[in-house]
Specification:
By secondary structure, the protein is of the alpha/beta class. It is 40% helix and 20% strand. The protein contains 13 helices and 14 strands. The protein is globular.
């Protein structure tokens, strides 16, 4: 295994530093990406509500205490940042790495006009649909919001008994209100969850008001708290993951040897291994397949959660919830409780935007930007969510 070159070059963003020795002042930079949020939905929402369902009204006091451990932030309390720290500087690519095509000023204006036309499409709403955005935040410290380098739009369709998980790729070219044309992941950096939700609503014409986010410094601890996850890993994925594992362990001053994959196979992964696996964008189609790995880890974690006993859930959730930031009011949580038994049995569908063969890649500001075919994309997304 020799992935040092990729690992070292990928230190431009933090992604899972070990909580016990958090390198807040370390000038070394790590790569963006990874499994940004899988356990959030599985643990912070489903498991908490599951406890209440299983235990009945008598457990309300315990549930209320657990909810108080969550970092609830009202939308009005989140400021919009006018400038970002140096750490937030957008990733640029070399000429050799780029995939996007050059566009003239006239062509770029045409793209902007097309995006403006999207705003004329009605925002879809339905009382039978509950949309929540799962966000994985990438930042070195808490002096700024961080980039939302992983975003999964989870839509619970109560009328059709199904849940849709749609990964929204970080490099999607969008217009952020009062900020300008940027990658989608910049919305969280400027205005955290509220600005990201409004940007997703404005861009994809699907009403999204709620979000759940996790700071990735704590990701490894969260997965270890849950107890790990079973993952199928190919030989090539194992090789690349070992590069990330070695890099993370060096930063954490941890011996990487016990965490390295011996090769491909099925493994019960700890936090370091799971993050190393999910950070990979070098096997397959770059960031496209990385989003598939994120949803795969999410699905596997949900399977783990369903096997937990009440005692296990109670113990784990009290630790995990302190890492969660969200804008879901407690009263709304209890409303969801009533429907959880049915929701846990819904059919799960997953996809990502841009959809296959429905986007272009352009080269803007020394970056690759993904430009979906908006008319077709919106139609497909709304059909997927609303039926």
């Amino acid at each position: 295994m020799n992935r040092n070159q990729e690992s070292n070059s990928d230190r431009t963003r933090p992604d899972g530093s070990y909580r016990q020795e958090r390198p807040e002042n370390d000038n070394r930079k790590k790569k963006k990406g990874g499994m940004r949020l899988g356990m959030i939905f599985a643990v912070s929402l489903c498991i908490v509500l599951g406890i209440v369902i299983i235990s009945g009204a008598a457990i309300y006091k315990l549930g209320h205490g657990m909810y108080s451990n969550i970092n609830y932030v009202a939308d009005n309390d989140v400021p919009v940042m006018e400038t970002l720290p140096e750490e937030a500087e957008e990733e640029t690519l070399s000429t050799e790495e780029r995939r996007g095509v050059d566009v003239t000023d006239k062509e770029l204006k045409s793209i902007h006009d097309m995006m403006s036309d999207v705003e004329a499409v009605d925002v879809k709403e339905d009382d039978e649909i509950y949309n929540i955005l799962l966000v994985g935040v990438d930042r070195r410290d808490k002096s700024w919001n961080g980039n939302s380098d992983s975003m999964i739009l989870v839509s619970i369709n109560k009328g059709e008994d199904r849940v849709s998980m749609v990964s929204l790729m970080r490099d999607t070219y969008v217009n952020i209100a009062d900020i300008g044309y940027k990658k989608l992941n910049a919305a969280y950096a400027y205005g955290a969850g509220p600005l990201l939700c409004s940007t997703v609503t404005d861009t994809f014409r699907v009403q999204v008001d709620r979000y759940v986010a996790v700071d990735f410094f704590d990701l490894i601890d969260i997965i270890d708290c849950i107890g790990g996850v079973t993952l199928e890993v190919s030989d090539k994925e194992a090789e690349v993951a070992n590069g990330y594992i070695t890099d993370m362990c060096n930063i954490m001053n941890v011996d990487p040897a016990p965490h390295l994959f011996s090769g491909g196979g099925t493994f019960y992964c700890d936090g370091i291994q799971a993050v190393g696996f999910a950070r990979n964008r070098y096997v397959g189609n770059s960031d496209f397949e990385r989003t598939e790995r994120q949803r795969y880890v999410l699905t596997q974690l949900l399977a783990e959660a369903k096997q937990m006993s009440l005692a296990q859930i109670t113990e784990k959730v009290q630790t995990v919830l302190q890492y969660v930031t969200m804008n879901i009011p407690e009263a709304e949580i209890w409303d969801l409780v009533k429907e959880l038994p049915d929701i846990m049995n819904y059919k799960i569908e997953s996809s990502r935007i841009p959809y296959d063969n429905m986007y272009d890649i352009i080269w803007v500001d020394n970056q690759d930007m993904l430009v979906p075919y908006w008319e077709d994309t919106l139609a497909k997304l709304q059909e997927q969510i609303y039926g």
